[in-house]
Amino acid sequence: MDSGVMRKSLAAVSLAALTMTPALWGAEQAPPAKQKDVKSCSVCHKPVDGQMRAFFDQVALKSDSIQLKLDNSFEVVKFDVDALKVINGSDPGNVKKSLKGIKKGHEVRVAYTVGSDGMKNISEISIKPAMKVPAQKQVKVEELEKLLSGKTKYTLVDARPPVKFQEGSIPTAINIPLPAFQKNLDKLPKDKGELLVYFCAGVT
Amino acid sequence: MPEWNKRNFTVLSAQALKEGWLDKELSFVLVDLRSEKEAKGGHIRGAVNLTASEIIQALKPFKEQKPPIVLYDAKGDGSAEKVAMTLVQAGFPGPRVLSGGFAAWQGAKLSVEAGAPAAKVAYVPKPKAGAISAAEFQALAKAIPANVVIVDVRGDDEVDKGMIKGAKNVPADEVASRLAEIPKDKELVLHCTTGARAEMAYNILKEKGYKARFLDADITVASDGGFQIK
Fold first, then answer.
1. Tell me, what CATH number does B24's domain have?
2. Residue B216 binned pLDDT confidence (cut-offs 50, 70, 90)
3. For chain B, N or C: smaller number of CB within 10 Å?
4. Which of A5, A6, A62, A157 to mutate to test the interface with B (most CBs of B within 10 A)?
5. In terms of residue numbers, what domain contains A190?
6. Contact check, Cβ <8 Å, A75/B11
7. Among the listed residues B56, B119, B61, the one whose alpha carbon sits nearest the alpha carbon of residue B86
């Protein structure tokens, strides 16, 4: 659903793997008033001065500018092609190609200083790498299809935001958005041995 | 999810169809797969009435635009799911199916449209916020009204090869530092060559309280000021 993102599709994580990272669930409180990061990033990351987490929208190499998407708006930031550090870029050593290679909607973190014209000049852009899910804990789409049509008991959890769930989800899935995970433990099957399959828009 | 959609359909509830699609006035194709007679007796707002055999042909002209598709049958007996799978195979990934069909919609007591639904697919992708249509841009550029300023946000080297007559040049990367030159009491119409820089300039100006729109299209400007929009 994530605008044709070609990352590996199905984040399937066992409950054990999720509960083993309590730090992930600590920051559930309301974000501070002057919060610049997009909401979904602030679930896990605290805002840092001089940094911003947002979705990559597009790059214009002719004007050395990048447009980032925030929750309800866009922000244009500038860069110096000779000085910009691209972390996790597709073409190490090639800033332009790496920037062109970032998918629309992908999570990025930028480090910036504010210039005299009020624009943010970024010195660094870090492209969020895919979350590493051990192979034995991953479920392939083919296996999921079999699960849906088979007799094995399972619970399928859509961890995306409700808005995305409303737009359409995998049959039989229930929606437990990641930020509200702990409040919804009662929705999970009582039998802890039952197979739990999680998915979202891509492995993040 | 993207991988799932390549080879499967997804489902949504009646409430989700209302809140997630209709209430938001999103652009999508809602297909009523029931008979003409049933659809006439009441359908969901905006639906087009197509049979399983004609749906692929009817959607073909829109394939490139990748419209979101939502299907519903009478009571969720699996017939919409079958159609959804034929759509996937025909190259329309991730169609959606209303769980429980029209019966579920009625069961949720959601509003039903009377009369005959559309018989032809109409789909116009929603333009980006702030975008101006090519036709309106053309009309404005032909005779720029007194309250309108066309701002060419391309770089110096590009502008040297030709500019629309009467347009003002402020390169996109200089917009923020040259705000004083941009009139706040006029309606600004921005263009570049693809729409990318114009959109960025639009977002910078909007943030500063300017009235602006931008051309979200490919445009080439000739040395005599004539231009072509693709």
1. 3.40.250.10
2. very high
3. C
4. A62
5. 15-23+139-199
6. no
7. B56
